């Protein structure tokens, strides 16, 4: 894998920092990072030899833990917050992937604009301006015009 020349090209989830560097970047003691790992709060990647490797995302989370902790938030609550933030990140990624699939589908079928279903449940793609053939067919979806 080639080394990115632009820092923006670095995958924020790539485990690259050893514990000493991560601790310095997060302004924490390495033992604190080990404790958070044992608790499951911020769990870094591991090398084949078992050494911890932290990603930019991990360091961002460590900083967030420190900020919330200094505001008096309990670690159990912080853990829940981080879990929900991770879930939101995963869902956003899934939405982006689905949007890309939808765009690709629209590009493959530029004339397909309206969908209907027949009485037996079969989905029918209708071209723009096509009327539904039977009274039992129901229009399911009509996208907004793209202007």
TrEMBL record:
Keywords of this entry: Coiled coil, DNA-binding
Is Lipoprotein among the key words of this record? no
Domain HTH merR-type, which positions? 16-84
Q: Which PROSITE patterns match?
A: HTH_MERR_2
Look up the domain of life of the source: Bacteria
Which residues lie in coiled coils?
81-108
Q: Which is one Pfam family of this protein?
A: MerR_1
Q: Mind listing the GO molecular function terms for this protein?
A: DNA binding; DNA-binding transcription factor activity
Protein name per the record = MerR family transcriptional regulator
